[in-house]
Amino acid sequence: MHRRSTLNALAYSETLIHRHHQLRSNKMQILAKFRIATVLIVLAASSALFAQSNGPDKQQNYLSVLDADQIVRQSVSATERSWQARDQYIYMEHDDDRRLDSLGQVKSENVSLTRVILVNGARLEQLVEYNGQLPSVEEQKKIDQDFEKLKHETPDEQTARFRKDQENRSFLRDVIEAFDFRLIGEEVVDGRPAYALQATPHPGYQGRGKYGRMFSKVEGKLWVDKQDFGWIKVDGQVTQSFSMGLFVARVQRGSHIILEQTCVGDAVWVPKRLEVRASARILFLKSLDIDRILTYSDYRRAADGAYSVSK
Fold first, then answer.
1. Residues 27-53: tens digit of each pLDDT
2. By CB distance 3.0 to 4.6 Å, which of 87, 138, 211, 261 could disulfide with 171?
């Protein structure tokens, strides 16, 4: 189980982490860093929860005999539903991106605040502040261009985006095969009763896709809400170094990821905090030590907010 939880966090975090690091540079790019529409584990319109279908007494009796495999399968289904539901939410993201020296001390830090909105069902990041300053003229121009592009997206472009989102989410079901989960107890996390599970890579698992290949190199711990099976917390670490997609980098052993989520109602779980402490080697030459903390707040349904745009 150690592994499944870590892997999920890694896959989830890779999307979140592949954002812009130099927002204030002349060639700054506002990247779609965290496409919940593309990643993160979880979605909407949940099928009746056990509490609704069985009644409280029967639910408690049933849950008390669930094994680790049953809990994980229920949590994967709940996560898929949450992801789908989260596609209807807008939110704020605070990104504290630190670079560390060999002693673990902060040698540089960049802090950004971003508003994530929906434009024709697609997520768009709008930079609000970077290191306490408003976006430059060039940055605002880029944001406006991305907005107009999504606003006038063609049917073919929309189909291609949707297909890519589905591909980025497909790793979730692989988690069931990629890891062995062990139920190690029950704990209260953020005031909610939870199952505590440990995940370790399943021997002989052949990874598929860009995320599946990482599964055998991570392990961790997963806390699953007892009421609706949402992921409350994932704590994982890298046990073997591996290559990371776009950056031509190798994430080093010992890198650590913590994902915390919160329920916004209707069994919809959304990211609350993601911390990544990682060591990476770029092109086998430059060593990079990162401490990155992303916090998410002000979740609102797009239909209830001012930042939902359709054609």
1. 333 333 333 333 333 222 222 222 223
2. 211
- The three-class DSSP label of residue 226 is coil
Per the document, the length of the chain is: 311
**φ, ψ of residue 266 in degrees (nearest 5):** 55, 35
pLDDT score of 249 = 64
Rounded to whole angstroms, the Cα distance separating 9 from 189 reads 17
Torsion of CA 160, 164, 165, 170, to 10 degrees: 140
Q: Show me where the domains of the chain are located.
A: 2-309
Burial class (CB in 10 A: 0-12, 13-18, 19+), 140: middle
What predicted TM-score, i.e. pTM, was given to this entire model? Answer: 0.74
CA distances from 17 to 60, 102, 186, 195, 309 (A): 38, 22, 31, 28, 26
Question: How do residues 240-265 score in pLDDT, each as one tens digit?
Answer: 887 765 445 678 888 899 999 999 99
- Higher-confidence residue: 61 or 115? 115
SS3 27: coil
283: left (phi over 0), alpha (psi -120 to 50) or beta: left
CB-CB contact of 294 with 111 (8 Å) = no
HSE of 190, CA atoms in CB hemisphere, 13 A:
14
> Which residues are bridge partners to 294 per DSSP?
95, 274
Tell me the pLDDT tens digit for each residue of 95-110: 999 988 877 788 899 9
